[in-house]
Amino acid sequence: MTALDELTRPAGDDDVVGGVPARLVAAPRDTAEASALLAATQDLTVVIRGAGTKLDWGPPPRALDLIIDTRHLAGVVEHAAGDLITIVRAGTPLGSLDLGEQLLALDGPAGATVGGTVATATSGPRRLHYGGVRDLLIGITVVRADGKVAKAGGKVVKNVAGYDLGKLYTGSYGTLGLITECAFRLHPRPQHALFVRAVAPPAEAARIRAAAIAPTAVEIDSATGELAVLIEGTPDGVRERADLLAKLLNADISDKSPEWWGADPWAPGGIGVKLSVPLSAVPTLAAGPDAVRGSAGTGVLYAAAAGITEVERLRAACVRLGGHAVVLTAPPDVRDILDMWGPTPGLPLMRRIKDQFDPGHRFAPGRFVGGI
Amino acid sequence: MIAGLAERLRRELGPGRVITDRQELRTYECDGLAHHKVVPALAVLAQSTAQVAATVRACAEAGVPFVARGSGTGLSGGALPHADGVLIVTAQMRDILDISPADERAVVQPGVINLQLTRATTPAGYYYAPDPSSQQICSIGGNVAENSGGAHCLKYGFTVNHVTGLEVVTPDGSVTRLGGRALDPPGYDLIGAFVGSEGTLGVATEVTVKLTRLPETVRTLLAAFHGVDQAGAATSAIIAAGVVPAAIEMMDALAIEAAEAAVACGYPPGAGAVLIVELDGPAAEVAAQFDEVVALCEGSGAFEIQIAADDSQRALFWKGRKSAFAAVGRISPDYIVQDGVIPRTALPEVLRRIDELATSNGVRVANVFHAGDGNLHPLVLFDDAVPGEAERAETTSGAIIDLCIEYGGSITGEHGVGADKAKYMPRMFGDDDLDTMQLLRCAFDPAGLANPGKIYPTPRLCGERPGRHTAGDTANRDGAEVF
């Protein structure tokens, strides 16, 4: 078909997802073109690729005909500073956003795109104060499996009209459709920021909460035994709060974050695990045999696992504590025999959602929970 | 069919749970949107998850629609009963099951009153942040259904930002637990999808919420301006300065007049508009920013600024604002409460156009709103005894919603779509948008029995769709499911 020829090109050597080579690649330039592409290729399986910073996350696709590259779906559609919102195309690198005195408070790998950040719902240090992707996303435009374009939410922060499909697409790993535009709420860029750093047990996080100093982030790194707190606000206020906390924890004040701050604890090609537990369980998790790093303020942490035994040990610990452990990335030999997602309450409902939104299972088949 | 259903439910739920008496059923004929009235065929006063599940299962098997109701304070008719359906009242499920400061979570039944949760957690230094104006009587279950906001959601977000776990009865009558105390359960964000679905995806029977640390300091001011333009300019200046107040609320002259008549809140005489600005947080931050806010209000033309000296004066500032809806009854026999959202920067322009609309339609409009996030609550005043006035008020109220859409806003910021605004949904969203939203509905409720007729003006038919089911799907199914 000519339409297909115009919209796609043959895949190259690098157009591989989780070891599975694609046949075709397309890089639509706008939502309309993406719509035409998906309508014209309804019998093709698809994986969506942004900057590729997390393309090794999740199991490999069961089948892969077409990679949709979002690099040309880039740029800021609107930045209404007075309304503290922005609308951004999905392929826009987070790091390239220039929002002046305002901030889109999403943490993620350097170079990651907006769409990839939403699709994987990355969670970093600042989530404690600003909220995560699900809290900051206020509107979304997607292209469905049949090529139809749908919007939900809007560009005002306060809005309860209709189902908030943005929540459903957040963390959906590209299994429900192609995200082309996202609207976000913004925050004012803080005037000043300081880090309070100490070698202290993770249980100290409870005292930080009790001190009511409203930290932006509280991070721990069990390998170094360090605890670090980010405090943001007005220059005088930040200084005063940091002093208070430094005294409380017998800690140092620094304008620099520790090296491990927000960094993945696993090496490229290693096993990376995302852990989430109730707040009271963070010290227990951190005291375990496996090194963990992450937020003692939200209970979302990360670990590098040496092998399958360590993954299973971490998962058992998290489940026992009332949480979850998801393997984000792992080398092929591990990936093939490991249940990367782990136990998934609500899975039957999720299957029904997938069947409704993507009846042909063309989007990222096998990449998500329960083989979705 | 209803008689058989009533008999089955009496048998399964025991005595005193099932209401079929027409007079008693009339108690539930409406929620806070009192001009929509429907008497349900049957009501169930549920006391447990098992009873809700048994009721929903019975409805599913009989093909009878059901509607869940908490305290019945909703303002969009979300809990409006179905004439041939069952009303499931969760108001008696009002136990706080756990309060855990160490986890910053509380676990509650759906009938727990919003403010009771805050009262119960305050001794430990915490509170439940979403605070709709009806918080003294509205239930957490209803808050979940409507994704309720409140004056302080400018800084703290809505219900959806504070729910981390749900137990829900899905429309087939099965019980599913989603999330819990930990964040980010694997898979689709079903909690995010469920909160705000207005009872169309099932019934929440247990809710795990975040508790928020009480701020060290709260400071509140009341600024009086000659007109709404100045108050709007002050709001813009505060946001532009990078301050994120806990709340910025505005009332215009007519709303002030009503509040004074009702609760004597002592707002400055002669004010054309007042702003309530509240800052909270660490004392060191609030002190610096509060002075800045005072200066910005003065710079925008405030002729009087009162600063709350203590909690009782702060309560008085808020009393005028929080009682404004009811207070309007003092100056008008009838009124319509509207709920719409505009980009905040469009405020002065939209208020001018609302004024023009009111004048041309011969009705009065009192404006009360969450100025910080552009959430308008115009109160359209009318006298039902005057022929034609109710229609003119309805026209004005509808035209205000069109204004919100025209300026890129929303038809509802916190009251929900419910029965009242389903007709406006196609003005805000296209056919494909509404169709896509209802795919979610079809996943949860293919038979369309959960609160039918709400949100969407045209229900989508959920036929079985032939899917491509590969062997891998089935292979992975076993062992991965946990209920």
Quick description:
The complex is a heterodimer of chains A (372) and B (483). By secondary structure, chain A is of the alpha+beta class.
- Main β-sheet, spatial strand arrangement of chain A: 17-14-16-15-19-20-18-21
Number of E-type strands of chain B: 20
The stretches of 5 or more residues of chain B where confidence is low (pLDDT under 50) are 465-483
Taking the alpha carbons of the first and last residues of chain A, their distance comes to 30 Å
Task: Report the span from N to C terminus of chain B.
Answer: 32 Å
* Mean pLDDT rating of chain B: 93
How many helices of chain A? 12
Strand content of chain A: 25-35%
CATH A-level architecture of the largest domain in chain B: 2-Layer Sandwich
Shape of chain A: globular
- The shape of chain B is globular
Which radius of gyration of chain B do the C-alpha atoms yield? Answer: 23 Å
CATH fold node name of the largest domain in chain B: Uridine Diphospho-n-acetylenolpyruvylglucosamine Reductase, domain 3
Output the CATH class name of the largest domain in chain A. Alpha Beta
What structural keywords apply?
heterodimer; A: 372 residues; alpha+beta; Uridine Diphospho-n-acetylenolpyruvylglucosamine Reductase, domain 3; Alpha-Beta Plaits; eight-stranded antiparallel β-sheet; 22 strands; B: 483 residues; Uridine Diphospho-n-acetylenolpyruvylglucosamine Reductase, domain 2; 4 domains; five-stranded antiparallel β-sheet; 17 helices; 20 strands; globular; disordered C terminus
